[in-house]
Amino acid sequence: MIDLLVIGEGLSGLMAAYHAARAGLSVRVIGKGLGALHWDAGTIDLLGYLPGAHDSLRCPMKQLGLLDPAHPYHLLGEATLAAALAQFVALTAELGLPYSPAVVAGENSLLSSPLGAARPVFLAPAAQQGGDLGSSAPMVVVGFKGLRDFYPALIAENLNKLGYPARAAFLPYQLLSGRRDANTVHLAHELDAPARRAKLAAALKKLLEPGERIGLPAILGIDDHPAALVHLEQIVQAPIFEIPTLPPSVPGIRLVKSLRQHLLQLGVRVEAGMEAIGFETNGGNNIQWVETETSARPLKHRAKSYLLATGGILGGGFDSDHTGRVWEVVFDLPLTIPQQRSHWFRPQFLEATGQPVFRGGVPVNRRFQPVRPSGEPVYANLWAAGGTLAGADPIRERSLTGIAVATGFAAAQQIATSHALT
Amino acid sequence: MFTESWLSVGPSLDDCIKCNICSSYCPVAAVTDLFPGPKYVGPQAQRFRENGQPHSPDHSVDYCSGCRVCNEVCPTGVKIAELNARARAQIVADQGISLRNRLLGRNELLGKVGSIAPSLANFGLHNPVSRVLADKVMGIAKEAPLPHWSRNGTFGSWIKRTGDQRLRSDRKVVYYHGCATMYYEPFIGKAAVAVLEHNGFEVIVPPQNCCGLPMLSNGEFKAARNYHEGNIQKLTGYAREGLAIVGTSTSCTLTLKEEAPELLDMHSEEANTLKMAVWDIFEWLRELYQAGELRSDFHRIDMVLPYHAPCQYRAHRVGKPAMEILMLIPGIDLRESHARCCGIAGTYGYKVEKYQIGMDVGEELFGFVREQGDAVEMTACDSETCRWQLEHGTGLPSRHPIEILAAAYGLYDLEARALVGS
Ligand SMILES: Cc1cc2nc3c(=O)[nH]c(=O)nc-3n(C[C@H](O)[C@@H](O)[C@H](O)COP(=O)(O)OP(=O)(O)OC[C@H]3O[C@@H](n4cnc5c(N)ncnc54)[C@H](O)[C@@H]3O)c2cc1C
Ligand code: SF4
Ligand code: SF4
Ligand code: SF4
Q1: Of these four, A127, B9, B38, B94, which has the most CB atoms within 10 Å of its CB?
Q2: Averaged pLDDT of chain B
Q3: Residue B254 C-alpha to ligand 4 middle, in angstroms?
Q4: pLDDT at B223
Q5: Centroid of ligand 1 to alpha carbon of A148 (angstroms)
Q6: Which residues contact B245 (CB under 8 A, 6 or more apart)?
Q7: Nearest-by-CA chain B residue for A185
Q8: Taking Cα atoms as reference points, which of B326, B419, B329 lies closest to residue B381?
Q9: Is residue A181 lining ligand 1, measured as CB closer than 6 Å?
Q10: Could you read off the pLDDT of B297-332 as tens digits, one per residue?
Q11: DSSP 8-state secondary structure symbol assigned to residue B299
Q12: Is the pTM of this model over 0.90?
């Protein structure tokens, strides 16, 4: 029997699997499908906005005290949060996909969104750091005629409105691919080829004006990405940065790919296409196995401990019916989400304090074990992490990936400790 | 008119969040412009394929190979491959089916006819002149790896001939051999029988039909329904007695378990009883192993063995049981392929317009095998058509895991593909 079964293969599940394996546990990860990193910008957003506030935060670590007491960051405490982020930075360096605090350690920096808005980011992959809006260097945002889901003119116009100097430029799509129609992932694969990059670099050099830095859609290679960036910058002789595109998102996919490869080296298998649909206890509060659906009878997965990392409403970990009842799909855990549809939302769509339905989730204790309203752990060998957790409003706060990285780490630590004790 | 029920497959399109993950992982969309990808031909085009509407809006759906990678990665559980299969069936219902596709769908009939005079049939099918003719007239690619009829008689004749040598036991299991084992590769069935008997089981081989998969994938739903009804009649009795029905062809077992009932909307009590009794042979052996009942008197086999789990295996959603069992054999250095598909996809890669697409898709797998170095003498894969494609693409022999297991028990000669002492 393995030590830990992680349910969900998003960022929180993968991070927890990594830390648990490093602590010596035998771990397996199962997931219904792939996680949100595939359509996410690939940055680690710790905390961009406080509830109700309009302006973005500069120093998120100093503002944690202002969050709701039930917020996962409160449960973690500042030291654990900092340790989780430091470990993430170290891990990505080891993976060859280095993330680092974009400009000043401990501060958010502002990077352009796919639509030219300024988004507060805590940790960014190397390729996005050159786009820091705190720098006054003018930007040329380069698109490709015919490439869907990246609109340089819109980006430049919106950046200008915000006071950042930017202009748009276009290159022919044929520079990227001989294909008539390809998505960003296919194009990134094309740019893994040095010859293709050299052609692109030559064209970029021509349209560059002195002092400019170049913003490109995030398609600069997948398997050979770090080398691709260096290669382009060497030829063009100007700073180049990536702007995330609409989904699918290559920066997130790069991270998932290398994390999964690393996990395999640590002996952790990640199985997609496995949907957890039920479980069995020993009659008391110990989970004996979890069942996944198959083409016929359910398959049992036995482990000493289980981690729920199914991503809540956004990840598919919660379901609801027309009356507004919401439930957690694997263990039917107690939730803090209002159980009536009329209470999910406030009257205003764009309510500054957020919508109750997104704030709710699985309440946990400081050990990241799901609890009943009485505070008792629901099951002795069950933990939870990531988007399933109650207490945050991750979309408004821009804290989804930060919570995933930090609570994945903390839950794995707690599980490892509990195994060391028994 | 198309009158299938849309239960469970149809409504799943409403769960599509347009994340494009499926299109990023689809192996066919990655290599050709002729296929715009699962999101477009699946959940998107589906909106325009209302029940009873005469024409599908999107004929490129014919380029979907049915590998189901999309289903596996979709984060919200959209049954994309099934939507595509139904759309293809609608096109066939509208426009009729080519002689070629009708022939390729008649695996059982072809097997029977060819077995009457296998040498003649092999010559007739495999000589260069008829391959060119088949290519030009019928559209069966002249390079494609077509099977050879068995020269040593069918599996059925062997079972009959050796009836009095077969083990009698009160532990019984039913064997579903499928057409490929019956007519082309009887040695797979012999290896399976040997392994099952070695573990103390009496093997029952009842009369049975083709599972109907080739017809399902060519859109001939009516003919497939007849076959599935035949199997229900012939096999459900054993299921009622509580016997397991194990198969060595991952696609046959998947069809009996899920594809036929789902696509043909056959959800009767009998169909369900049959479904629940069917196992892939390694899925079943894994249960035996977990119960501590699998014999482990293995001979050492020293070899580097690249193993590719066919997509149909992943579609079972049971993990990779063959790999788990092969890893128990001392000496085998198993190398797991993470390639998405070998490209043959049943009969897809046989078709002249799709042969090259199949080879381009398969390159991911062939490249993986090459990377394992010169020590590799053979590969392993559970599916017959994939093995033929693997041999075609790598030049190395390929074996079913049950052959390897039988060899490890000392019952089977991997080179001669025959039972020891026969
Ligand atoms: C999760 C998610 C889900 C989405 N779901 C949908 C959805 O369901 N439906 C949807 O429509 N969009 C959706 N989008 C947005 C979509 O991806 C956008 O790129 C865009 O809105 C697609 O719209 P379209 O079909 O009109 O354009 P596309 O099919 O993307 O094509 C637009 C074409 O117009 C060209 N073009 C752009 N600007 C100009 C111009 N000024 N003059 C001439 N040609 C131009 C482009 O080069 C491109 O070829 C989604 C985005 C996300 C992130
Ligand atoms: S992966 Fe699933 S949800 Fe995403 S676009 Fe494809 S079908 Fe839709
Ligand atoms: S079944 Fe395979 S080929 Fe067809 S759309 Fe899905 S991933 Fe692509
Ligand atoms: S051909 Fe092989 S690898 Fe490809 S679709 Fe089929 S089973 Fe999968």
Answers
A1: B38
A2: 85
A3: 13
A4: 86
A5: 6
A6: B173, B174, B175, B176, B235, B238, B239, B256, B274, B277, B278, B279
A7: B24
A8: B326
A9: no
A10: 999 999 999 999 998 888 899 999 999 999 999 999
A11: P
A12: no
